[in-house]
Amino acid sequence: MLTLILGSLYFGWYRWPGWHLTDVKTVVLVMVCVDVVLGPTLTLIIANQQKSRRELTRDIGIIVVVQLCALTYGSVSLWNGRPLYYAFSETVLQLVQSYDIDARDAETGRQLNPALAPHWYSLPRWIWAPLPQNAEESRKIVVSAVTGGDDVISMPKYFKPWEDGLSSLRNKLKKVDDVPYFAKSEKRSSKNG
Questions:
Q1: Alpha carbon distance 116, 102 (integer Å)
Q2: Could you give the strand order of the β-sheet that contains 92-97, starting from the edge strand earlier in sequence?
């Protein structure tokens, strides 16, 4: 069951590079530890010939319930964290995960921009998320983003096809040496890698 869930998420909704960018290794490790290591270990510990069949059934039942709860929790966490978009907005490329877009914005996106709106079956795709042309709306979004609210990357009604933003993206590209964000060692390794 665990293999089926992880396999479908890895090969389906997470796809490369989503699995690495979302850093789901911790959730997967916990799921594997609980379902593959902890469950059998606890079963081995509680299995005792001196226990009645009823006691043993109850104890193993509790372990199974705990494993199923952990599997469900991990699966829901992975589902809610799945990447929906790789978005270019203004000056950065950003990962947009399922939990970044609330239901209202998703519904508005389905009405106003159905081609790029998220659905439960949406696979990750590349999009351009420019600020709107309306200066007042743009200002509201920038203020919201700066104060910890929604950013344009969580508003599907503004999404545009990736190809439409390529010229803007090309104008923003910099050489690795010109990006102050990276340390010298990171700049060196990116050039050599």
A1: 15
A2: 92-97, 83-89, 125-128, 160-161
Q: What is the pTM of this model?
A: 0.73
Band of residue 155 on the pLDDT scale cut at 50, 70, 90: very high
Residue type, 109: G
Provide mean pLDDT across the span 49-63. 87
The domain ranges of the chain are 2-80, 83-178
Q: Return d(Cα 39, Cα 65) in angstroms, integer.
A: 10
23 pLDDT more than 70? yes
Concatenate the DSSP letters of all residues of 90-123 into one string. TTEEEEEEGGGS-HHHHHHHHHH-TTT---TTPP
Q: What is the token pair recorded at 30?
A: 């916990």
Mean of the per-residue pLDDT values of the chain: 85
